[in-house]
Amino acid sequence: MQKPNYGKMLDDKLAELEKSGEKPRLMLHACCAPCSSHTLLFLYGHFDITVYFCNPNIAPEEEYIYRKNELKRLIAELGLDVELIDEDYDPAPFYELAKGLEDLPERGERCQRCIAYRLRKTGKKARELGCDFFTTTLTISPHKDCAFINECGIKTAEECGVAYLCSDFKKHDGYKHSIELSRQYGLYRQNYCGCVYSRHRAENKE
Q1: How far apart, in Å, are the Cα atoms of 1 and each of 4, 146, 150?
Q2: How far is Cα 28 from Cα 66, in angstroms, rounded to an integer?
Q3: Is the dihedral of CA 34, 6, 151, 148 positive or negative?
Q4: Torsions phi, psi of 47, nearest 5?
């Protein structure tokens, strides 16, 4: 069975929108400024974008605030007409879903539960605000399971009643472009995904 080409699916959707002249409302879940940089520029012009910063996995609180502020700065410096909605810092939901999975590596069940939680929150927020689509910047990361993210997004769309925009933002040299943009704008590039467990693994590697 041939694997879905999520990058082509996104290209086809953008071509469809360009042909129709439509500009739907998109709720874009953002994990950090570097991952958002290429993603925002790639999608801007095709959608009326609302960025949603909802990442209860990030620890400590100072890290959460710093990443959120970097995202705000990026949007301002790019000069994009994009709304940013951010949630108050509340790591309790993450620690609840991570119970018993603390020692698993990235891409394991803990990571999957975390992604699923954030996508559900994004889909719910998209429905609440009347958006036409929702998606996430997470597929730009080579450390994340792109197929799982998209499958989870499609499932979430069925639950929340808002269409999920399939993606693989690594395509078109997206990850490389995000690194170039990070240098250009002096963005903070963290050395761990966000949670305390990924931070400990990164520190042990160093």
Answers
A1: 9, 17, 17
A2: 19
A3: negative
A4: -135, 155
Q: Is 192:57 a contact under the CB 8 Å cutoff?
A: no
Average pLDDT, the chain: 95
Structure confidence by residue, pLDDT tens digits, 101-133: 998 888 899 999 999 999 999 999 999 999 999
Residue with tokens 């998606």: 135
Domain 6-205's class?
alpha beta
At residue 134, the 3 state secondary structure works out as: strand
| 55-109 residue pLDDT tens | 999 999 999 999 999 999 999 999 999 999 999 999 999 999 999 999 888 889 9
Q: Where are the domains of the chain?
A: 6-205
Q: Which helix (H) or strand (E) holds 68?
A: helix 61-78
